[in-house]
Structures are given as C-alpha cells and as structure tokens.
C-alpha cells in the first residue's frame, strides 16, 4: 500500500484473495481490531467477528463521564496532518474534532507548581529534517522493493524503519549530527508512555515524531471512545462485547477455535478460518519495562497455543506499565487548561512511579489527569496514586478525591539489539499469517492510534487482498462500509423475501421487467445514488426504473428526428448519476445500442475529449446523442463563449458531432407516469450473444 495515496485509491484496485465468506475472527475491539474490520469490509469480506472483553469497544481509547463531562483516559490527541487514516474514518462517521489551540504545553515544577511554556515548535524543527529524510528513504526503498519481484512484499509499520534506526536514540542522533534528543521530543515521548529515550531504538522515536509533528493538535468532541463506538455500530460485522477470549487454539486442518467467556461467565466456543489478534493480548505474561524482577526464564503466554517461533518472538517483547490517575483537586485553579510535564521525573528514570505529566482536561472543572509509570513489582497502583497525591500537595493543591485509576499494558516493544538482529524481519516475513494467524497493534505499528489503524489497514491489504486486474470471483465491493446498517446488511441478502422468485431470464431488460412488475420487489430500492461524501442523494425503485426505461424506449422508437431503429447506436453523454442508468436501460428495452462516452466539462476547453467523442460517433455510426437538458444547455453556452473568444483568431476548435440531442430527463419529467408497453411489449427478448452496448476505451479512438 502506498500511504501517500488517499484511502479510496488504495482500495480501488484491490480484490479479496479469499472467499468473501471466510470466517475471520478479530480478538479485541480497539483501534487496531476495528480498523482491520473496516479494511476487511471494504474489500468485501462478509463474515467478520470482533470479540472484545470490555463492555464497549475502543480499547485504550477509553472515555469516561465524570460529573457530567467526558474525559479521555487513554488515546486522546491527534496531529491534524499526521493522522490521515483516523481523519478518514472520522469523516465517514462525521465525528467532530476540536482544536487544542488553547491548551498549554508547559514544564511544571513539582515542588512549587510554577510552570513555563515549552518551546515545542522550535525544538521539533531540529528533528524535522531527519524525520523527513528517514520517511523519504522508507518510501523510496519501498518503491524499489515493490519493483523487485523477489522482495515485492514491501515493509509496513515499525518494520519500515527497523533496519535503519535500530540504534539507541542518543547514538543514532549523534550519528546523524544531532548532539541529543531535543527536549520537547524526549519529554513528549516519555510523558506519552514510551519510556526514556535513552532506552529505546530510534525507530520508535521516529514513529512518534513523524506522527506528532505536522498540523494542529486536535481531539474528538464527546471523547475518542465515541468514535470507535460509532465505527463498530456502522460496520457490517458481528461485535461481541463482554466476551473475553480465554484460549486460542490452531487446529491442524487450519481452523482456529477460541474459548470465550461471555457476560454471564459461561464458556463458549467459536471457530474461524483466520484470526487477527490485536493489542497486547499475546504479551499478557511478558516482561515489564524497567522492572526490578528478573526476566522471566521461559515466556508462557496464558491464552495462545504458541508455536516455537511465536514463543521465541514474544519472549523478547516488553510492555510498559503506564497509569492514568484521575484526581479532583482544589488549590490549583490558577493552572490553565493544558498539558504539564514534570521535567525532573522525566530526566531521571530512577524516579519511576512519580507522575511524568498531568493535564487539566477542561478549563472549567478541577479534575486533573496524571500519567505515571509503574514497574509491576513494587510500584503499582496504590504507590502511583500516593506519589501523584504527594506531588499535588507539594504544588500547593489538595486532592479532594481520587476519582479513578487505570493501568495499561502499554507499548509492546523490543530492545535495540533484538531490533538490530532482525526481529521485525522475522515478525513480518515469517510470523504474520503463520497458522492463519495475524497480529496487529503497538508492537508492529507503534503505540499511537494513527500508527495502529494504518498498520491494520496495510496488513489486511497485504494478506487479505490481491491486485490482479480481474477478480478471481465475483464479489460486492463496499465503497462506504460505514454507511451500511450492520444488522440490516447481514440479514438483507438478495434472496431476502421468501415470496420472491428467481426466473431464469436471458437479459438485463427481462430482469428489470420482472422485478419492476413483481408485487414484492417493485417498491424496493433498486439504485441509490451516493455523492462523494457518501450521502444518498437520489434513488429509483425497481418499479420506477422499469417505468422510466419503458418511457425512454417508447420515445426512442417514436422519435422523428432522428428516426431510430432497432440496432441503431446512440451516444450516452451523462455526468455520472441516475439519468445515465435510466437511459441505458431505456436503450436496452428499445433494443437500441447505447454507447456511453465520458462527458467532458463543457466549461473547459475539451479539445482532446471532443475529438474522441467525434471519433467514437463516426466509428460506431451513431444516430443521436442522449443526454440531459442541463448538460446540453451548458454545452451550448460554452460553444457560444468559445465562438466569441475565437472570433477573429482564425482558429477552429473541435466541435461536438453534428447529431440531434435528445433529453431523457425531460422525457421522464413529462411522462406523467404513463407506462408505454404497447410498442415494446411484443419485441422478442434478445439472445445472449446479441450486442448489448458498446464501450470505447480512451486508446481505441485516439488515432481514428
Ligand atoms: C494513557 C494513554 C494515552 C494515550 N494517548 C494517545 C494519544 O493522545 N493519541 C493517540 O493516537 N494514541 C494515544 N494512546 C495510544 C492508543 O490509545 C493506542 O495506541 C491504541 O488504543 C491501541 O489500539 P489497539 O487496538 O492496538 O489496542 P487496544 O486499544 O489495547 O485494544 C485492544 C483491545 O483488545 C481487548 N482485549 C484484550 N484482551 C482480550 C481478550 N482476552 N479477549 C477479548 N478482548 C481482549 C481489549 O479490551 C482492547 O479493547 C494513548 C494510550 C494511553 C494508554
């Protein structure tokens, strides 16, 4: 996939590579799982199930209501120009964002509560050129990879950068002429829960900077969780919440069975052909970052029947104990809404447990969020709360109430040596897809919603689709998977109504007549026209299309200027829309051959396009042009304008073919719903090998 291209373009040439009813299970309804589901639906897969242990989806994008206001405890902010996939999804569900211009970014002294603005922008500038340089390298090497058949798989997620930026961050930057990690980058990284930069391969810092440096900082109105909730409700998939996966077993026949504890505590079994496992699910019993406990001798994940390769890989993974603690505080009213970094606790890793950052989330409430690291051994929830409360006290505030606390198993990652030794090569080239199992989430993608979502999308495109010019089997592509009502989609297949019969007819026209006159189907929607924002702006029932096609056929066959006979060809010149569909079916009914051509914008100089239309008209010997009144009016206005502009210049621009124009939209408008059956009823049905329509490709007319 090319991340530079719009999402729609990326999907337009892809087809599902497995049967669309392949049973695909997704463990976890967080951003990764839901984004994978979105991509699968977009490809046309119709049997996708998410199993989520919490009572709602969203994963670490958890939003809670406290005293009537919404707070994001986990995923919250996005840089407007660095999160194209999330903003694409948000647009589809019309989620609203708010910019955070009035949010402060400051360093605060934990002993006095005095704060000072961070020079975020200045500081980031020093690292931007390196970030862009790495991105350029990744893009170009991916292109080279795609051109090289032997390595055609390309790289995605952290893998794209792991082979060039495995060095620890300070060393890597020194090697690239920077003395140290800029302070705002280092603080931003640590405050966001990714550990101390000196411990981390630069690849992770790169993923962080490239996703946070471009554009205004924004967040979702009503909380990030509401976005994922709407996505899960809009997708045509099954979502089981309060369903915890207890075990995943891969059977020799390739089938995957999972044990699930449902909301009543009962154990249930499910079976899938493919499984996508999200989040930190496989690393539940793995190592914790900066934990004093010795490394676990043998990695033994609780939930999965791991293969040797999986055990080897997952045993190298650490997660971070990251806490959000919510406190209601008096005495800090002077602190404006914003993010505050505790510099002294971020400079010194031995201070783990103290809060690294806090946020006044809303300007008009005294509820503050604190973020801290734990170590799974002696620094856990109560200690983390105690240290946050102490910090508030030393800043001159008083904790009225500890509202809540969350512990996240955060940011699965590997160390610099393992990254250097090809961890990500093995993960992507050997592990993904082994035993019909795929992994999405922070380890592969880096722990940010945009990174996770776009990785899940890329994984699905890579492993569940192909780009062969012709699909291997017919399937329905969903342009707007989030627009379908999920339950309705699942039960609403074509054979929905028991009374409907499926006769064996030889032509499209025959079927239109059948469905358009059948008492069950004639009032059902046949076509809905959707604009580029995904909104339905028009539609026709089977009955309407049938009637309109009959009327157009009648007008064609009774036309005097020109006289049109069976087998004659007419050009169809329509901007995309339902008028075109009606004209097309009208021609089929009249047994006149429609020749669709691409309408050029009449207001633009369309020299080449008009030449092509002229050539098509000549080649197919068209007798007339079917179009709409509105389009032809624009054509005439444009030609008058051209005549005036060209007057006296002696130049002659290409003209429309000299053929009569017929307006099918006016015919329909004036038809008064009269059904014209008589002059077309007794026409014999066409044979399967009769010519139905003519389509000229752009190259076929250029040199006529
Ligand atoms: C405090 C905090 C602040 C953050 N801030 C930001 C931010 O500002 N911007 C940003 O872009 N990102 C932010 N993130 C990161 C972002 O939230 C994560 O990257 C993202 O949520 C990861 O998505 P995921 O689907 O991979 O994993 P998760 O969100 O962890 O989702 C995994 C899902 O799997 C489910 N699951 C786990 N085990 C099982 C099981 N056994 N059975 C069934 N289901 C299971 C979980 O309940 C969960 O819903 C933040 C995260 C945290 C914790």
UniProtKB/TrEMBL annotation:
One Gene Ontology molecular-function label: oxidoreductase activity
Domain AMP-dependent synthetase/ligase intervals: 540-702
Record-annotated Amine oxidase domain positions: 32-278
Protein name, UniProt field: Amine oxidase domain-containing protein
